[in-house]
Amino acid sequence: MTASRRRSKTKNEVRGMSTQSVPQDRADSDRSRKEVVLSGNMAVAHALRQVDPHVFPGYPITPSTKIMEMVASFIANGEMQCELVAVESEHSALSVAVGAAAAGARVASATSSQGLAFMWEMLYIAAGSQLPMVLAVGNRALSAPINGFSDHGEAMGARDSGWLQFHSESVQETYDNIVQAFRIGEDRRVRLPVMVCLDGFVLTHTSENIFLENDEAIRNFVRPYRTEYTLLNPDRPVSYGLGDPPEFYMEHKMRQQAGMERALQVIEEVGAEFGRCFGRHYGLLDPYRMEDAEVAIVILGSEAGRVKNVVDELRASGKKAGVLRIRFVRPFPDEQIVKHLLPLRAVAVMDRSYAPGAVGAPVFQEIRSSLYEYRGGAPHVINRIYGLGGRELRAADVRTIFSELDSLRAGNESVPAIRLVGLRGEPLPNWRDQQAFKMPVGQS
Amino acid sequence: MSSGGFSTEKPDAELPPWQEMLPGSVLDQAGNSVHRKTGFWRGGGRRPLLDLKLCVQCLHCWISCPDACFILSDGKVIGIDYDHCKGCGICSRECPPMVNAIVLIDEGRFR
Ligand code: SF4
Ligand code: SF4
User: Fold this and answer.
1) Which pLDDT does position A243 carry in this prediction?
2) How remote is the CA of residue B39 from the centroid of ligand 2, in Å?
């Protein structure tokens, strides 16, 4: 159950992949890291191989199947000691995860879309029981209609289930996030399960050159898992999953909330330590050219890269544009976001999910609500919903959004407040109405 | 407000603030169910009656009862803890058919 039972080095850790050594001038831990070509799924599987959790209950689903397949083959080849529990559904997969975590095991799994939807009941049980575990989610649009391509619908549906939720931009960040997720969720100040999202196909299936860190270095970073409340300690017997009468339920919810709030600090601490160990630093947000920006796009996930490219173009032509990429939806880093957005004139929040009947998509709602306190000086905030069901976001679409922000700054009220990017046909009338969404000016 | 005996029925002042509670409704006081009398959950259900004259002390009931309601003395069954018995009937079912020392009687008959 500790690092001692693990082999120190795998001979064929990058079997079948091109490898090359890395220049020696990086951090100390570099000595045996490799630059390899991996897809997001493969990177997750390698991170799991290195962390080697005690239990991996799983049920395969496109586009994250490869994670489970690779974990199974690592185990078969003796490269992992992990117990893979093949079950008959995602509901059972997460049930096994909950039981194993309550027994004191370090647990990981992977799923997507309908699979996450089928885990719903157990998502709340894992979070409500404050059981740390790591779940990789290869984001894929929910049925119906059945689609199979990427969007954040399933993740956004789970955003209030009590799980921490990472969104990764690249394969490298996905790998790094999986490693950090164990530390963050298992921290005693947090003790909550963590979902690490990677966009389906765009990240799960696309290969990228990444640094695969040394096995031992990752294990040292993650540390052996110890929990003080385990079902398998006869010296300190505990019960999990008890009934909570009305006079206790609220207090337990508050404990979850406290874990979420402390996670903001833990994420920054772990991200900084990760940076010291491996040379890649992470915080809550990834601001890009935001220093003196006047307009910006807020986005999560893999499409941030495309927006950054457009921002580079705009900057070259003298436009003060920026991108604020959010790495975490839960806990929602509202203070840090507000700090970046307040100096701006206009902001487009780009959501890759949508909430029928709601006023805009989830990230937009939270950002507008975070800015409400500052309504006198807050920027215009519009919502651009993109990429549903894998619809491509083109650079031209991003340029259009930036020019909409410009005309909004210039006082043009005909810019729709909410719009589906690339939709054929006119948006609904009340989505067009800027007045309906305008913040009252000068009342704060 | 009654919460069906689920509640501790204690005033706020006697209950811990959230900071003093364990996370995730973990309970670390083993065996404290002795203090929570839950037998009235049988409600209008059935109550097991044990006839010690028939009992052969096989202890099937003792090991099968999900609520550990069989009271032992010197390794022998001497009675049932009705403060915790839920009336599930497992004991009656597990008592060997040839012995049949436990019968289930409608709670209504005891009122
Ligand atoms: S009826 Fe059920 S709860 Fe009651 S004593 Fe028998 S087995 Fe136990
Ligand atoms: S199962 Fe029946 S015979 Fe056996 S100990 Fe219990 S009451 Fe007696």
Assistant:
1) 85
2) 21
Q: Which CATH number is correct for B12-110, 3.30.70.920, 3.30.70.20, 3.40.50.300, 3.40.50.1980? A: 3.30.70.20
Residues in chain A with CB shorter than 8 Å from the CB of B16 are 251
Query: What DSSP string describes B27-62?
Result: B--TTGGGGS--GGGGTTSEEEEE-TTT-----HHH
Can you read off the two tokens belonging to residue A363?
A: 């990230």
C-alpha count within 13 angstroms, C-beta hemisphere, residue A182: 29
Cα A423 to averaged position of ligand 2 atoms, centre (Å): 73
pLDDT per position as a tens digit, A324-338: 999 999 999 999 999
The pTM for the full model equals: 0.88
- The verdict on residue A206 lying in a domain is yes
Residues of B in contact with A104 (CB under 8 A): none
A387: left (phi over 0), alpha (psi -120 to 50) or beta: left
Cα–chain center distance at A346: 25
Angle, CA of B57, B58 and B60, to the nearest 5°: 120
The range of the structural domain enclosing residue A110 comes to 2-278
Structure tokens, B26: 């973990």
pLDDT at residue A11 above 80? no
List Cβ neighbours of A40 (8 Å cut-off, separation of 6 or more).
A138, A168, A171, A174, A198, A203, A204, A205, A206, A208
How many CA atoms, within 13 angstroms, populate the side-chain half-sphere of residue A387? Answer: 27
Query: In this structure, what CATH number is given to the domain that contains residue A329?
Result: 3.40.50.920
Query: A15 pLDDT exceeds 70?
Result: no
